[in-house]
Design goal:
By secondary structure, the chain is mainly α. The protein is built from 14 helices and five strands. It has a three-stranded parallel beta sheet with strand order 1-2-3. α8 crosses α9 and α11 packs across α13. The chain is elongated, with a radius of gyration of 22 Å. The N and C termini lie far apart (72 Å). Bound molecules: tryptophan. The site of tryptophan (TRP) has 13 residues, from β1 and α8.
C-alpha cells in the first residue's frame, strides 16, 4: 500500500508553484506522461499519476499519454502480449476518467517521428552521463541482465517522447526524476547548439510518489504485491488483509517508524480526502483489523465505478483501437511538426525544395 511518507524535499516544494500556475492559467502548458504496457495498472499508478492526469485534464490542460511499448524491451527480451495489454491499459485510462476527446492517448511505436528525434538527441549526451542515471542503474541491476543499449539510452528516448510532443509538464513519481533531468539537459543543449526549439519540461510530483506493496516493498507488478484496478472487491479485501502491519495495536500515523501502518492510512487519506492523522485517531485501539477494514472500504468504494466501466470498455475492443488510431494521428501531427523544426534548425532539410533528377 502506499508509503506517502512525504517529507517535502526541494523537488517537491518546487512543484507546488507549478501546480498553482497551472490552476490559475492552464494555457501554454502541455502535460505529457506515460506508462509501459507490462501488465494491468494498479493502485500505485492510480494514486501516483493517473488521478493527477485526470485532474489536469479536467482543469483544461492538454494532456498527452504515451503508451511506451518500445520501452517494454528496455529490461526484458520480448514485449509480451502487447495487443491485449495495451487494450487493457486504454480501458483503464478511460475508466479512470481520461477523456479521449480531450486527451491524446497513443502507442509510441505508431509515431516514428519520435524515434527519429533520438539520433540528434543521442549526440548531445555522453556515455558517462547515461551510466550515472540512478534509475537506469537500478533497473539494470533488477533485470539481472547485462546493460543493453536501449536501457542505457532509456532517458534519451523518454526525452524524445516528451520533447517530441512539446510536453512542458511531466507528472512523475520520484523514480522518474532523473529521466526528466535528461530531457531538460537534451533540450537545453539542443537549443544552445542549434537555436531555440524546445521549452524545458518541468516535473510535477504527486503527493504519493512511492507506493509500498502489501509486503512492505515498493509496489510493482513483478513483486505481485499490488492491488489491480481490475481486481475484484474480494481479491482486494484478501490482499489488504494480508498486508503487513506491526504489533502495536493502537493505530498512529508515524511514517518513519511505522511505514506499513502509515501506508494504509495514506491510502485511506488519498482516497477519501481525509487527513491520515485524523483517520488514525478515529481508528485508535481498533487496531490493524479496523485499519484494514477502512482501507478495503475506501479502495473498493473508489474503484467500484471504475471497475464497472473498465469491464464495459473491454467488451468493445474496436472502440479502444479507435481511440489509439485517433491518438496516434494527433500525436503524429505534433511530432512531425517538431521533427520538421529540428531538421530545419540542424540544416537537415537541405533537399526539401523542388528537387528533381533532371540535370541543368
Ligand atoms: N518511463 C515511464 C515509466 O516507466 C513511462 C514513460 C514513457 C513516460 N514515456 C514517458 C513518462 C514520457 C513520462 C513522460 O513510468
Amino acid at each position: 500500500m502506499t508509503a506517502v511518507v512525504t517529507v517535502p524535499d526541494r523537488a517537491e516544494t518546487a512543484t507546488a508553484p507549478l501546480d498553482e500556475r497551472i490552476a490559475r492559467h492552464s494555457d501554454g502548458f502541455r502535460v505529457v506522461s506515460g506508462d509501459r504496457p507490462t501488465g494491468p495498472l494498479h493502485l500505485g499508478h492510480y494514486l501516483g499519476t493517473l488521478a493527477n492526469r485526470v485532474r489536469l485534464q479536467n482543469l483544461g490542460v492538454p494532456v498527452v499519454v504515451v503508451i511506451a511499448d518500445y520501452q517494454v524491451i528496455t529490461d526484458r527480451s520480448d514485449p509480451g502480449p502487447l495487443a491485449e495489454r495495451v487494450r487493457t491499459m486504454v480501458a483503464e485510462y478511460l475508466a479512470a476518467g481520461l477523456d479521449p476527446d480531450r486527451t491524446v492517448i497513443f502507442p509510441h511505436s505508431a509515431v516514428p517521428a519520435l524515434n527519429q528525434l533520438m539520433l540528434p538527441f543521442l549526440s548531445l549526451v555522453t556515455d558517462a552521463e547515461l551510466r550515472r542515471n540512478p534509475t537506469v542503474k537500478a533497473e539494470a541491476l533488477a533485470s539481472r541482465r547485462p546493460l543493453g543499449g536501449l536501457l542505457l539510452t532509456y532517458p534519451v528516448h523518454q526525452a524524445a517522447d516528451i520533447l517530441g510532443v512539446e510536453g512542458t509538464v511531466v507528472p512523475v513519481g520520484r523514480d522518474q526524476l532523473p529521466h526528466l533531468e535528461t530531457a531538460r539537459l537534451v533540450a537545453r543543449r539542443f537549443n544552445d547548439v542549434y537555436g531555440p526549439v524546445f521549452a524545458l519540461p518541468e516535473p510535477l510530483l504527486t503527493g504519493t510518489p512511492n507506493l509500498l506493496g502489501t509486503d512492505g516493498a515498493k509496489m510493482s507488478k513483478t513483486r505481485r504485491n499490488t492491488i489491480g484496478l481490475g481486481d475484484t472487491a474480494d481479491r482486494t479485501a484478501a490482499i489488504v488483509r494480508s498486508a503487513q502491519t506491526d504489533s502495536n495495536r493502537r493505530i498512529t500515523f508515524e511514517p518513519a517508524t511505522r511505514p506499513q501502518v502509515a501506508n494504509l492510512l495514506s491510502v485511506i487519506g488519498e482516497l477519501t480526502g481525509l487527513d491520515p492523522v485524523v483517520v488514525a485517531t478515529e481508528i485508535g485501539d481498533g487496531g490493524a483489523v479496523e485499519l484494514k477494514r477502512r482501507a478495503i472500504e475506501a479502495i473498493n468504494d473508489t474503484l467500484a465505478p471504475l471497475r464497472r466501466s473498465r469491464a464495459d470498455l473491454l467488451a468493445d475492443p474496436g472502440y479502444l483501437t479507435g481511440v489509439l488510431i485517433d491518438g496516434a494521428a494527433r500525436a503524429g501531427a505534433i511530432a512531425t511538426g517538431v521533427l520538421g523544426r529540428v531538421r530545419a534548425a540542424m540544416g537537415m532539410d537541405y533537399f526539401s525544395g523542388a528537387a528533381t533528377r533532371s540535370r541543368a
